[in-house]
Write a structure and sequence with these properties.
CATH topology of one domain: Serine Threonine Protein Phosphatase 5, Tetratricopeptide repeat
Structural class: mainly alpha
Number of strands: 0
Strand content: under 5%
Number of helices: 7
Oligomer: single chain
CATH architecture of one domain: Alpha Horseshoe
Largest sheet: none
Distance between the termini: 70 Å
Radius of gyration: 24 Å
Shape: globular
Order of helices and strands: HHHHHHH
Helix content: 55-70%
Length: 162
């Protein structure tokens, strides 16, 4: 019974997905199974200005979309695994990807602070923890994070003296 309610939505989602990928057929192209830009002649694709590349080409497309909350969650999950096995560099990379995929999301900043702290990047860890508290001031672990920040400040000050 539940599935019947979602079938129209699922079909509409599929149509939107195909349209966003550029596979919706143009009546002028006929029944070609190629995407619209694949049927265009190579001479028409070149830019009018020499030295400028086409901004719509796949070469200029970003590796991943800017706002992708599901990707951010997956990046956090993978980063947690990397932290568990001790690969902090990989964890930091994945957490930075999560931050790019879902800006304003506090959780990756907390994990990023932990990874940076364990790697010995104390100044960066302080910034990450502080950003976490800025985004999520009423966090359940806010007191714990504030203590970590104070501890890291003291360690950074001690290193400056030496």
């Amino acid at each position: 019974m539940r599935c019947k309610r979602f079938l129209p939505w699922l079909a509409a989602l599929g149509v939107l997905e195909m349209a966003s990928l550029g596979y919706a057929q143009d009546p002028q192209q006929g029944s070609s199974s190629k995407p619209p830009d694949a049927a265009a002649p190579a001479a028409a694709k070149k830019s009018d200005k020499p030295g400028k590349s086409d901004t719509d080409s796949a070469k200029n497309a970003p590796d991943q979309p800017k706002w992708d909350p599901l990707r951010a969650e997956k990046d956090i999950e993978v980063a947690e695994h990397y932290m568990h096995i001790g690969d902090y560099d990989a964890a930091i990379d994945r957490l930075e990807d999560a931050i790019d995929s879902k800006p304003g999301y506090a959780i990756p900043f907390r994990y990023l602070g932990e990874a940076q702290e364990k790697k010995g990047l104390k100044k960066q860890a302080v910034k990450s923890y502080q950003r976490y508290l800025d985004l999520y001031p009423h966090a359940e672990d806010a007191a714990k994070i504030k203590k970590k920040i104070e501890k890291l400040y003291k360690e950074v000050a001690k290193e400056k003296k030496n």
